[in-house]
Structure formats: C-alpha cells, structure tokens
Amino acid sequence: MSALLQTEALDKHYGGLHVTAGVSLALEEGEIHCLIGPNGAGKSTLFKLILGAVLPSGGRILYAGEDITNLKPFQRIRRGMSVKFQVPGIFQALTVRQNLAIALQHHLARAHLDREIDRLLEFLGLHAAGLQRASELSHGQKQWLEIGMAVALKPRLLLLDEPTAGMSPDETHATGELVRSLNRAGVTVLAVEHDMEFVRQVAQRVSVLHLGRIFAQGSMQEIVADERVAEIYFGETRYD
Amino acid sequence: MWRLLEGPQTLGRGRWFWTGFVVCLGIAAGYPVFVDGYTVGNTVYFFDWVFMALGLCLIWGYGGALSFGQTAFFGLSGYGYGVLTTDFGAAHGFTLLALLLSVGLAAAFAALLGYFLFFGRISGVFLGIVTLSVTLVCERFMSQTAGPEWHVGAARLNGYNGMNAMPPLTLPWSGGDIVLFPDIGLYYLVLALLVLVYLALRMLVNSRFGNVLVAIRENPERAEMLGYDVRLYQLAAFVIGSALAGLSGALYTSWGQYITPSSMGLNAAALPIVWVAVGGRHDLTATLVGTLVVLAGFQALTIYGSQYALVVMGALLVATVLLAPRGLVAGPVEALLRRRRPGSAR
C-alpha cells in the first residue's frame, strides 16, 4: 500500500494558539482511518486543513503525490476527494433527487442522471423520499443523503466529519455498514468520530490527536490497550 | 434542448402552462390593434424594464446574491447608447449595433466589478452595500458633468439634466431605414426580445448551470465541496443579469430619447428590488408577471404624486417580506401546486 494522503508537519496557529502543531499523518490507499481525540484536540481544524477550508501556517499536504497545500477546496474535490460534514450540508429547499442530481451532474450526462439517482436512492434507502424536500427528511435521512452526495462524486478519498452525529444506535450501525461497503468498493476513508462503537465497527487504523499533535496511532485494539490514551480521555487514574 | 424550457427551477410545465403561454402571447400580439398609439408606447416602456427585473431575478433569486446596483449597468448602457448614436448617427441600422455595444459595455463593467466582488468573497449584505454604492457614485459622477468639458466626441453629457435627442432604434430597410418610435414597430421588436430572453433564461436556469446556481444560493459551502468554483458561477450570473440591465437601459434610452443620472439614483435602484421581491424572486415567470403588474400600479399611483407612489412601493415590499416572502405571485402558486402534488417541491 502507498500513502494516498500525507500531511507533513502541518501547523495551524491563530496568534499564539497552536491548534495543530506539526501533524504528520499518512493515509494508506484503501484503508478506513479514524481520527479521534478529546474536545479541543484539533480534529476539526486538521479536517478543514485537509479540505482546504483553512490554509495552514506551516507544513504541507500531499495527495496522490501532488502538493495540494495551496489548492482551493473545489480543486481538491475535483482531484477525487469528497466530504460529509458533521451538520448535514445539503440543499434544504431542493428535493432529494435534485440534491443528488447536482452532485452527479459533474461527471454524468443528463440522459444517465435519472437511472443513477434511482440507484443511489436505493443504496441509501431513500427511494420513497425522492420527491420530498430535503428539509422534510429526518436527521438520519439527511445524514445519509449527504453521504449519498459525497459518494455520487465517485471519490477516491472520502472524508467524514462525525458522520453519525445525532443518529440512533441502529442508524449508526447502518452507517458503519454503508462506509464499509464503500471501502470494499475501493474508497479510502478518513473519519473524524466521537462514537467509539462506530470507530470499533469500521476503523482499520486509528490516530489519536491530543493538543494539536498525533498522540498515538495503531489498530483499535492497540489504542484501547494504550493507557496513555485512556488518561487523556478520562484523566489520570490512580488505584493506590 | 426544449426539455430545458421546463424543469425543477421554473414554475409552470405541461400542456396547460404552455397553452396559457401561447394565449398570453396571442393577446400580446393582438393588443396594439385594440389600443391607441400612446398606450402601445407606454406598454413598451413597461416591457423595457422587465429585462432588468429578469436579470436581477437570475442574480438574486436564483444565485442568492442581492445586487442593489443594477441601475448602474442600466445607466451606463443608456449613456453608452446616447453617446454612440449621437456621435455616429443612426444610418444603416447603426442604432442596433449601438444597442449591442452598450449592452456589451454594461457586461464588461459587470465582469470587472463582479471579479472584485466575487473573487474577493464579498457576499450577503456587503454585496448589496457595495453595488448600491457603485450606482450612487455613478449617479453623483454623471450629475456633475454639466460643463462643456464633459463630452465624448460631439455628445455632451449635460450633468443633472442628462442627455437627450439621441436617435431612436432604426431597422435598415431597402426603401430607407424604418425608425422605431414608441409605437407598434418598437412594440413588436421589444415583445419579441422579451419572449426570447424569457425562454432563454428558462433554459439557462433549468440547465446544469442553473442547478449549480440554485445550489450556491442554498448552501455555497456545500456547492464548493461538490467541486464547483462558486465564484465563477456567481460572476457569470452577475454578468448575464447586468447585461440584461444594460439592455433595459439602452432600450429605455432609445424609447424616450433621453437618459438622466437619476436613473441610477437611490429611488431607481430600489424599484427593481421591489418588482422582483413582490412577484417572487425565485421564479422567472413570477418576476415577469409581478414586474408588469407593479409597474402598471406604480404608474397609476404617480397620478396622485410620485412620492405617494414610492411610499406605497415601500409598503408593498415590507408586506411581501412579512406576509409572502416567496412573492405575491410565486407564493400562492407554489402553495397551490403543493396541495395538488403533496410531497413535491415544485
């Protein structure tokens, strides 16, 4: 395997506040990589840096061997990245079909749009809601719709920012299965997530971010067994 | 291509809508036969403004960028037509070329201004403030051009009094040019232009471009994260919409054979907002119908005093925002359609 995405000594500071400090993270092609860490660890900022929503103060980002540090977000998306936000970033006033059409029309001729939308609706379990306004969907359905829009771009790298936020345990499990099926189809996934059940379900590798630095890295079992990780999540535990 | 005439971004589809469209067109075509020349000319005056309204509908209603300064392009194009036709005359249908050049001038200015606005990431209320400032600066500038030093070739700009006596539109003809004074000839030309622009805009907003424009209005961040260069789409809509404001300006100038700085002033700048908001900014047909109705109402009210008419326009805008934010034409039609087709957004 080779690194699809690589951050090198990525630094972001606002005045004296270092939100990420020298983060070097390598994401292998074909893996599901989860980024976890306590609140304020710098996960969201790192996510925005990778997307290009904020520019780094130092360091660089490589994607498929290309330096994309100074590219605009839409330029990164056109290179095969795709994103799903924590708060569903959908077009509320448009129908579910229209939402998917806008994502699909990038690479699909008008004649094939309807068939591909039907296929996606089936895949997302939203076939009955195609003509509904997106604002009328339940929270979980909105999350899936946004995943559908992200998938519609046929990404090579899928970035998920807390994809199960606000979901019930059943919905979370279903989302996990959906992510795994995408991964089996060849999509590399980087997910920022708080829900440990979800991380357990999907992650092949986990990175722990703490105070803006990569604190630990490994499989889920290794991370769970790491006492230092438990300390940063729950504080120092003494039994004496 | 014809499939684009009806789609998710426009109200009205199917046999009933297009039958109604043809009936309206038939009535409009037969209208000059039943009314006097003055009324025909007055109707052309109404039509002239609709292009600017449709342009604003595209920029604001579909693209979500409120431009408060469309009158800057209206005025620039109007003065452009005045200067060109005063300097080069009207022979051999030059007025038509002058019309095109004036619209091009408005589009070029919009491209320059829009580049700084959209690539400078100016949005929301700030976009309105900057565009309003631009039109007010244009008005102030043209108002101080009364001196003899302010001329372009033989064309004097004439300050606050504005330019006048430029030639009306002419059509080159074998037996001599046809001069289009505000009467039946000009009526049919402007009506044909209006139908053409309306249908072209319907196709534009139902195309891929239109879909993306609406997506940007709804959620610009998400649109960018789907790989679209939001700035480019907003700029394109701004240029097209402003070119239409320019078309209004040049047609208006050729219609009345005058153009004054007040056409770029605060009152003038506010009126297109009222027309588009009252009709329903999210839809071209609602904007077209709303603009014609409000213009006719405004003119009727000016009989009792232009200040009263402006107060009523302000009240109408407030009432629309509070009671029917989707417009007095589009709002009820959308509600009716939703009742007939529950679950459908359009």
UniProtKB/TrEMBL annotation, chain A:
Keyword line: ATP-binding, Nucleotide-binding, Transport
Could you tell me which residue ranges the ABC transporter domain spans?
Answer: 5-236
This protein's superkingdom?
A: Bacteria
Recorded source organism is Lichenicoccus roseus
Q: By its UniProt entry, which InterPro entries does this protein fall under? A: AAA+_ATPase, ABC_AA/LPS_Transport, ABC_transporter-like_ATP-bd, P-loop_NTPase
* UniProt xrefs under PANTHER family: CONSERVED COMPONENT OF ABC TRANSPORTER FOR NATURAL AMINO ACIDS-RELATED, HIGH-AFFINITY BRANCHED-CHAIN AMINO ACID TRANSPORT ATP-BINDING PROTEIN
Select a single GO molecular function from the record's annotations and give it. ATP hydrolysis activity
The uppermost taxa in this organism's lineage are: Bacteria, Pseudomonadati, Pseudomonadota, Alphaproteobacteria, Acetobacterales
- Per the record, what is one GO cellular component? plasma membrane
Protein name per its UniProtKB record:
ABC transporter ATP-binding protein
From TrEMBL, chain B:
Q: Fetch the CDD domains from UniProt.
A: TM_PBP1_LivM_like
Coiled-coil stretches: none
> Which keywords describe this protein according to UniProt?
Cell membrane, Membrane, Transmembrane, Transmembrane helix
Q: What does UniProt give as GO cellular component?
A: plasma membrane
GO molecular function list: branched-chain amino acid transmembrane transporter activity
List localization entries: Cell membrane
Membrane-topology descriptor: Multi-pass membrane protein
Write out the transmembrane intervals.
16-34, 46-74, 94-118, 125-142, 178-201, 232-252, 258-278, 285-304, 310-337
InterPro entries reported for this sequence: ABC_transp_permease, LivM-like
Instruction: Please report the name of this protein according to its UniProt entry.
Output: ABC transporter permease
Species whose genome carries this gene: Lichenicoccus roseus
